[in-house]
Amino acid sequence: MSASSKKILLIHPDLQWLKQTRDFLRTEGFMTFATRSLGIALELQAHHRPEVILFALNLGRTNGQEVISALHHQDAHAVLVVLVDEKEKSRLSELAPGSFFDGIVTPCEGKILLSHLREAQVFYKEKNSLFQYMQEYQDRVQDQLEWLIWKEQNKHAYKVKYSRALISNIRNTILQGMGLGSLITRMELLEMKMKKEDGFYIVPRKDFDGILTSVHNVHRWLENMEKINKALDLNYSVETIEPSAFPDIVVKAVHAVEKFRAIKNHKIEMGDLTIEHPISGNADALGLCIRELLINAFKFSPEGSTIDIVRFESPRVVLVGLLNDILSMGGGVTGIPEGYENQIYEPFYKLNNVYDERFFDEDFSMGTGLTIVQGAMQQMGGRVFLHEISDHSGEEGRRRRIMAELVIKKSAPEE
To answer: Which residues form a coiled coil (predicted)?
Structure first.
């Protein structure tokens, strides 16, 4: 970690302690600022944005919770560590719970101080990663609301555009792959090859078997349409899902799509799926949503690439994230460009008409999978988001990936 990312602010009335501690931390690689004045400390905080602030309870006329409030008001991201002597230890319990990260009894050995600082830095990273996610979450919710307002204000133009997209989508789906398009082509070929004899038509057996296969596929396609219709009408009861049951829901969903994973030899990496508190949802609906997002990731990511499943938890929600690499599209839109992040949930809307017949057996096709996922999540009081991110975690450096997020509400505690 570079020195610029290890900024520490010390606030203490004891000048000798300040100098000794500042010099010690600087030798350990910290960029350290020190002052005896809360006013100067607030100026230093505004200018340098230290990650961790160590401060004494008594600073002139201002003390205790007032000091904490002033520091929080200046920068809510900083991690606060209270410095007390043996006589002041009991005063820590008088401070508002959660308003500071840790308390250190001074004087203390350098290695003990460093241990507290490292814990505070880890907390800073976790805390501000969550802050950043919640800000992005609010931005995406606002984008969805703006999209709904735009649709309401432009009803006629949107209906015309949507109707054209729907007709184009259905036409392409019917004509591509192993469905009606294949049947029509095979019938035209058969018409050229068949011979009429004594009131009967003689046709090559191989061609006739091909027609039977196409007819069978059309039946499956019609059954798929019925599955889509039923899925759009499903009503899910919202129940409490215990923490112990949550990982099983995700794992079962992964196992259920194994045949689709094998098509392009994808790898699935699952992080820690344990959660601390119950969530509100429906096990069947969550399983369906995860399956659909996985199949979507399989279809639109390169052969042999890795799908990552991660879990984040905040005080109010649990997030399940699925990350996949982006498959380059020669005849359509690649990835999910900005501006398309809300349109993709519209029924029968597709960013491209590239058809992969290896996924013919999926339950929901024709651009309906994300519509069904969004409907299920909304019934549970949750949300779904798909958007592009820049992933810096790999050895190859920065890469564009798709992040699919299921945001699930935690259950309210029983009174």
So the answer is: none
